[in-house]
Amino acid sequence: MSGNVTVPGDKSISHRSLIFGTLARGRTTVRNLLEGDDVLATANAMKALGAKIEKAGDVWTVDGVGNGALLEPKEPLDFGNAGTGSRLTMGLLAPYDFPVTFVGDASLSSRPMGRVLDPLRQTGCQVKAQEGDRLPVTLHGAPLAVPITYRVPVASAQIKSAVLLAGLNIAGTTTVIEPVFTRDHTERMLAGFGADITVETAADGVRTISITGQTDLRPQDITVPGDPSSAAFAIVAGLIVPGSELTVKDVLLNETRTGLLTTLQEMGANITIKNRRETGGEEIGDIHVANSSLTGVTVPAERAPSMIDEYPILAVAAAFADGETRMEGLEELRVKECDRLAAVARGLEENGVDCTEGEDWLTVRGTGNMAAGGGTVETHLDHRIAMAFLVMGLASQKPVTVDDGAMIATSFREFPDLMASLGGTIEAVA
To answer: Could you tell me if 106 and 135 are in contact, meaning their C-beta atoms sit under 8 angstroms apart?
Structure first.
């Protein structure tokens, strides 16, 4: 596999661009927006709340309604499979004195929302949900919502962001205490939009983020960097397919998102980052990759927040490495689009890879040779499981089949074409 490619815009920043643009009074422009189903679901929700969102050529425009001026939607907000979009919008709407119902597909409806709903309840928001705080969920904000100080119980940028978004429209100061540093796009982007937000980091690494509510936001011109989670598939393909050499251009290099690169380099990957530069307060660069002999490593639990979406593709890389790779601190994988930890383990076993799954860890024992392949992987409607094992099939002794690839469009519609442009072959099976 060889060539130069770009990947679609970062998913996290794309969601936030639409949401924050809706809260700004005036026109926000967004270039390189990820046009996957999840982000488009967020766009439709923002339209239902009063924003005017259009695409002209390669540029999206968001004509916002202003902070505190969202409209009551006429229908339930359908987020499909978009966990980020739904959870952030719950925070956004928690202080509004009208009912809003959130719905989603079967996968999203099976995912627990309590970790986001619990702090929103503390603001005075009334919540009606299915058993286990699952969708459908109806919120009705308190007429006089109260600011809270909330210590995030697990490493989750979605919880942090939901509380900060609620605080945007609550009089007074809302504070989030974050013991473990998670992706910080919300803090960076809110500051860029003009929110009154402060971030302090203690000597022990605990972060305190405070936001003063009911302030005006300014529209912005945003260029979304390439998504490192999408780039991960091309990067690992370049490492494990014999003779490969490729470059993925314009990739986001935010320190909260580079855990996979660090891990692969520890494994001996031939990865170099070129043309580092800054755009919109975020560092980006071009990632050059060449086929490499990898060695198993232990990935510490504290690295998990910086690569939580990349463990499926890391497990594939580990299957081709020499020796044991142990990944720790993976409890968050149990509540993704599916139980990703179990799905990865079963997919590896189906393709002849020796592995052991623990409650919050996974050990993969590679032989340093091509994985056997030849199996059919049950994806559980999870896009990252599908793409990870299709990448395995590009380098394994026998082709790998996934039971469904349609859900890839939720985050990376261009995936098959991008792999084909590098010389890989991914075929639909009738």
So the answer is: no
Tokens 């032989």 belong to 367
Average pLDDT score, the chain: 96
Q: Work out the burial of residue 99: count CB atoms within 10 Å of its CB; fewer than 13 is exposed, 13-18 middle, 19 or more buried.
A: middle
Cis amide bond preceding 99, omega within 30: no
Backbone angles phi, psi at 233, to 5 degrees: -70, -45
The pair of structure tokens assigned to 286 is 């071009």
For residue 276, CA distances in Å to 3, 251, 270, 273 come to 19, 10, 17, 7
**Spatial distance between the Cα atoms of 123 and 174, rounded to a whole number of angstroms:** 10
List helix spans (H) across 256-382: 259-266, 311-319, 340-350
Closest listed residue to residue 410, CA positions, set 11, 141, 51: 11
pLDDT, one tens digit per residue, over 270-295 is: 999 999 998 878 999 999 999 999 99
Q: What are phi and psi of 80, to 5 degrees?
A: 55, -115
Gyration radius of the chain over CA positions: 21
C-alpha 281, offset from chain centre: 19
Task: Identify which of 236, 367, 399 has the alpha carbon closest to the alpha carbon of residue 295.
Answer: 367
Q: Is the Cβ–Cβ distance between 36 and 278 less than 8 Å?
A: no
Query: In degrees, to the nearest 5, what angle opens at C-alpha 105 toward C-alphas 125 and 332?
Result: 70
Q: How far is CA 76 from the centre of its chain?
A: 24
Read off the pLDDT of each residue in 89-117 and give the average, rounded to a whole number: 96
- Strands 270-279, 25-31: pairing is unpaired
Whole-angstrom distance, CA of residue 373 vs CA of residue 385: 15
pLDDT at 430 over 50: no
Contact assessment for residue 38 and residue 84, using Cβ atoms and an 8 Å cutoff: yes
Q: What is the pTM of this model?
A: 0.90
Residue 331 and residue 263: Cα distance in Å, rounded?
Answer: 19
At what angle are helices 157-167 and 11-23 packed, to 10 degrees?
10
User: What Å distances lie between residue 420 and 2, 179, 424, CA to CA?
Assistant: 10, 42, 5
Q: Which residues are identified as catalytic? A: 309
In contact, 174 and 166? CB cutoff 8 Å: yes
Please name each of the domains of the chain with its CATH number.
Answer: 10-223 (3.65.10.10), 228-421 (3.65.10.10)
The packing angle between helices 340-350 and 383-395, to 10°, is: 20
Find, among 179, 184, 228, the residue nearest to 208 by Cα: 179
